[in-house]
Write a structure and sequence with these properties.
Length: 570
């Protein structure tokens, strides 16, 4: 019957799925540990039978059995290592997709600043599964077997071995109590320093241009110094504990040998039994010593397990959304409020509006009025909200994202391009349909520009499109939004970085979309885009204060702009 531990989380259930592999690792560990008695038995046979009988044939047979047992032991150890390696790879294969999705879901919801940490955690768990530390946990239960054999050789040495084993366990427990918290704290401080640097490298150009590197280095140095201090303290304690454990181990081996010598002098055991007992004592305590030596990787793997467990439980794999017909493009917001952590006032406040399918809607408003947040909410990427965004009468979150994605074109205010070719970026890193890629490029007016690059559409654009200008990145992002002729387009400040030629291409592209009956939500602060609008929505302080036909809204704005003259002084 499964224990509650293996029912408590997605990660635990994945590990429970490998119970058969762990069972066989236990079986092969049993074989290897039983055959670890081979040197002891061989030694006893040499001193007790071969040397007394002087038989070379007996020596040959005993040696042949010894070699056979060593071969079986080595084969069993190889098999258990092979099983653990394959289990680690299979665990990674079972979890990497879940970790990938959960990490990006967490990052999208601004709950996790470092996506790579989850993948590092998965790697730590996989590596620990294949390390000597885990094998030590399988070997430790055999310590009582070795002690029992020592009891058969001599009860006094058996009691002495029990005392030494308890002492070694006490050292292991002390290591856990005294170092676990320090190791976790040192790891957290190191990760914090690493995350700080990574976050600043995303904006390296302004840092360098405005001479901010030195100031930020001071802030990083404080975090790094704390990391070094925590790490130094943790390592010093670990090394002290390991040195003490080594001192105890060497003392135990020598004292066991001395106690055995005393038993030989008193005639209570043979010299062969004395040496065999000493070898058995070393074998009995070796797993405990290995546990102490590998305690840091164990703590790191445990911390990684808990972090990954929390991530996968908070962001589990979602069931595929309901299947729908291709969207027509009607967008409706009902009682919609968008909030953000640490902010008291909502960003969007109780919006109730409908944008008909096939219409071009221009959203105007001052900076900070919530225009970009509205765009994110419409495409379903804003995490904290109440109310509903309905697409053709269905909540947008109910749609299967892989199904809905090709029907949506989204151009965010901050253009996000990815390391790859121009064609891959336009084709959304899916299967490249060359006619569609070229069509999207032509509609945004960048086809000729692309052909002037040395490799045309196969040109690598670098990380985040670093080799392109701001206007080129914006037009490439617009081409990606238009790829596949989607039914709904949400364009956030699409002309912010465009020159006159680029803006003309944008207006032409929007006019073509309008003629084709596409739904276009266009967020802008430039009034010249109003020429292509069917509807205009005005936002202020997170509310849509006016929404209607373009001419009616423009007339209303003009009327509001005309102030009555002051009354004559009597």
């Amino acid at each position: 019957m499964k224990s509650d531990f293996f029912k408590r989380s997605i990660l635990s259930r994945q590990l429970w799925a490998f119970r058969r592999e762990f069972f066989w690792v236990g079986i092969f560990s049993m074989i290897a540990n039983v055959l670890m008695l081979t040197p002891t038995i061989y030694m006893l046979q040499l001193y007790g039978r071969v040397m007394k009988s002087g038989s070379e044939l007996t020596l040959l047979m005993v040696t042949m059995f010894m070699l056979l047992f060593f071969g079986v032991m080595a084969f069993a150890e190889w098999l258990r290592s092979r099983i653990l390696v394959r289990a680690g790879v299979r665990l990674d294969e079972a979890l990497n997709s879940l970790v990938f999705t959960a990490s990006f879901e967490a990052y999208l919801k601004q709950a996790r600043s470092n996506v790579t940490e989850a993948f590092m955690d998965l790697t730590n768990i996989r590596q620990f599964l294949t390390s000597n530390g885990l094998i030590a946990f399988f070997d430790t239960p055999w310590t009582p077997v070795y002690i029992a054999v020592i009891f058969l050789l001599n009860p006094f040495l058996g009691c002495l071995s029990i005392f030494f084993a308890i002492l070694q366990l006490a050292i292991t427990w002390q290591t856990h109590v005294m170092s676990s918290k320090e190791i976790e704290t040192a790891n957290d401080a190191s990760n914090d320093s690493y995350r700080y640097v990574q976050s600043k490298l995303r904006n390296i150009e302004p840092l360098h241009a405005m001479g901010m590197t030195g100031n930020l280095r001071k802030h990083w140095a404080e975090r790094h110094e704390l990391s070094l201090t925590k790490s130094e303290s943790s390592l010093e304690r670990q090394h002290r504990q390991q040195a003490f454990a080594k001192f105890v181990r060497y003392c135990m081996q020598s004292l066991t040998l001395g106690a055995g010598a005393l038993m030989v002098i008193e005639g209570k055991m043979t010299a062969g039994s004395m040496i065999a007992a000493n070898v058995l004592m070393s074998k009995a305590l070796a797993p405990l010593d290995l546990v102490v030596a590998t305690w840091k990787p164990f703590i790191q793997a445990k911390s990684a397990f808990l972090r990954l467990e929390k991530l996968l439980d908070e962001y589990p794999e979602k069931a595929p959304g309901a299947r729908h017909q291709d969207p027509l493009g009607e967008i409706r917001l009902e009682g919609f409020t968008a909030t953000a952590p640490g902010r008291e006032a909502p960003i969007l406040n109780d919006l109730n509006v409908m944008f008909p399918a096939g219409k071009t809607v221009v959203v105007l408003g001052p900076s900070g009025s919530g225009k970009s947040t509205l765009a994110r909410c419409i495409v379903g990427v804003w995490p904290d909200f109440k109310g509903h965004v309905l697409l053709d009468g269905e909540p947008v979150e109910s749609w299967d994202r892989l199904e809905l994605g090709p029907h949506i074109g989204y151009l965010p205010q901050d253009i996000e391009l990815f390391d790859g070719t121009i064609a891959e970026n336009i084709a959304r890193f899916g299967e490249i349909d060359s006619p569609k890629v070229i069509d999207a490029a032509r509609r945004t007016g960048i086809h000729e520009m692309i052909l002037r690059f040395p490799k045309g559409y196969d040109t690598q654009i670098g990380e985040a499109g670093g080799m392109l200008s701001g206007g080129q990145r914006q037009r490439l992002g617009l081409a990606r939004a238009l790829y596949g002729n989607p039914e709904i387009l949400v364009l956030d400040e699409p002309n912010a970085n465009l020159d006159d030629a680029g803006e003309r291409s944008l207006l032409q592209a929007v006019a073509e979309l309008k003629a084709a009956g596409k739904t276009v939500i266009l967020v802008t602060h430039r009034s010249n885009i109003l020429a292509v609008a069917d509807l205009v929505a005005i936002m202020q302080n997170g509310r849509i204060v006016q929404c209607g036909h373009r001419d009616d809204v423009i007339a209303s704005l003009k009327a509001a702009a005309v102030k009555p003259s002051a009354a004559p002084v009597s």
